[in-house]
Each structure stands twice: as structure tokens, then as C-alpha cells.
Amino acid sequence: MDRNYEAIFVISSKLSENEIKDITEELKKIIESKNNAKILETLVEPRQFAYPINKETKGTFITYKFQGPPETISNIKGEIKHREEILRTTFVKKE
Description:
The protein is of the alpha+beta class. It has a single domain, classed as Alpha-Beta Plaits (2-Layer Sandwich). 28% of the residues lie in helices and 51% in strands. The chain has two helices and four strands. Strands 2-3-1-4 form a four-stranded antiparallel β-sheet. A hairpin with a 2-residue loop joins strand 2 and strand 3 (56-68). The protein is globular and about 40 Å long. The model has no long low-confidence stretch (mean pLDDT 92).
């Protein structure tokens, strides 16, 4: 049974606008390829951090709302865990 999720990725501010666009598309493909997940909405916005993360004070938040089975989350985490440009990742199950 598919569930609704929200994935938030915090991307380094050291990347150019084109690199952020490429990462946004790459993350979208990763999510869609895992267990036939369906992306419902994508939001990209630059923000100032409340506290430094890896010595950076600002970054780009990429939010995806998607549907998929529970194992989708662990598959996505395994795919992106060694990406240096992704500072933080959060997954939330939506009701």
C-alpha cells in the first residue's frame, strides 16, 4: 500500500544555479525509480540557516511530496548517502 511522504534535501550553497537544477532533476529520478514512487509536488527555495551546517550559513531546500511503499525511503537513503553536496535529508510520513 502506497503512503504519502515528504522528502526535504538541504543542498550546499557552494553550487551554481545550474548544478542545483541538475541535482533537483537527479533526485527526482532517484525517487521515481525506487518502487514506482510518484512525485506529486516539487519545491526549491534558497534559505538562510538558523545555525551553520558544515560551516555553511545558507543553502537550498528541495522538497518533494511523493507516494510510494514504505521501503522507498530506505532505498532513497542508500542511493544518496555519500553525496557531499547534500548537507541534510529528512523524510516525513504524511497522513
